[in-house]
Design brief:
Number of strands: 7
Largest sheet: 7 strands, mixed
Number of domains: 1
Structural class: alpha/beta
CATH topology: Rossmann fold
Distance between the termini: 42 Å
CATH class: Alpha Beta
Strand content: 15-25%
Strand order of the largest sheet: 3-2-1-4-5-7-6
Order of helices and strands: HHEHEHEEHEHHEE
């Protein structure tokens, strides 16, 4: 019988970070879409969705979907829409708000270990979420894995090239459990390239305070 795997200090810390993030969002789920800050995030999610240029035959995955507001807006445009979030509370709220949309599904899960089959989706979105991931270098290859050949991806987040964003980032690291830091645009490009994506491009919006990285699976 093999020896049991002993968690390292690194994996324990990552688990603690994810638990802290999940617990924080569980606590705010019922008011997520009414707070002024979350409304701004929802606008950013809508812009990231728009950048994917969705089609009627698309099978869409929204990673870090929160309460699913942007997904509900986009669902009528696609054949299938799936939202995933680490927070059970957010997913419970997302399901409650989307009961009248037959092509929408939600699942609790980890972006670094997506509970979906290879090539299951034709479009993947990750907006205002990647700064919560302890290892984006594991999450982006997972996004590639679940995309079909030719599938598109859009990753959107605040742009730490801007001073105001760096100040916000510093504040959130102190005050919001699970906020690990905004990812630089050139780092997003590197992660996408290493995961095998092609046609990588960047769009900077809101006076360059928000960046969307777009790519296609070869």
């Amino acid at each position: 019988m093999g020896a049991a795997t002993v968690p390292t200090m690194h994996t324990q810390r990552e688990g603690d970070q994810k638990a802290a993030s999940s617990g924080y969002f569980d606590a705010v789920a019922d008011r997520y879409e009414t707070n002024w800050r979350w409304r701004r995030i929802l606008r950013q999610q809508s812009l990231t969705f728009a950048a994917l240029e969705l089609r009627a035959d698309d099978r869409l995955l929204d990673i870090g979907c929160g309460t699913g507001a942007a997904l509900r807006e986009t669902a009528p445009l696609v054949a299938r829409a799936v939202g995933l979030d680490l927070s059970p509370g957010m997913i419970d709220e997302a399901r409650r708000l989307a009961t009248d949309l037959p092509n929408v599904e939600f699942a609790v899960g980890d972006a670094e270990r997506l509970p979906f089959a290879d090539g299951e989706f034709t479009a993947v979105l990750c907006s205002s979420s990647i700064h919560h991931y302890p290892q984006p270098g594991k999450a982006v290859p997972e996004m590639a894995r679940v995309l079909a050949p030719g599938g598109r991806i859009a990753i959107g987040d605040a742009n730490p090239e801007q001073l105001i964003v760096r100040l916000v980032d510093r504040h959130l690291k102190r005050t919001e459990p699970g906020h690990l830091g905004f990812v630089h645009a050139n780092e997003l490009v590197r992660l996408l390239g290493e995961a095998g994506f092609e046609q990588i491009s960047l769009r900077r919006l809101h006076r360059q305070g928000f960046v969307i990285a777009l790519a296609r699976k070869s």
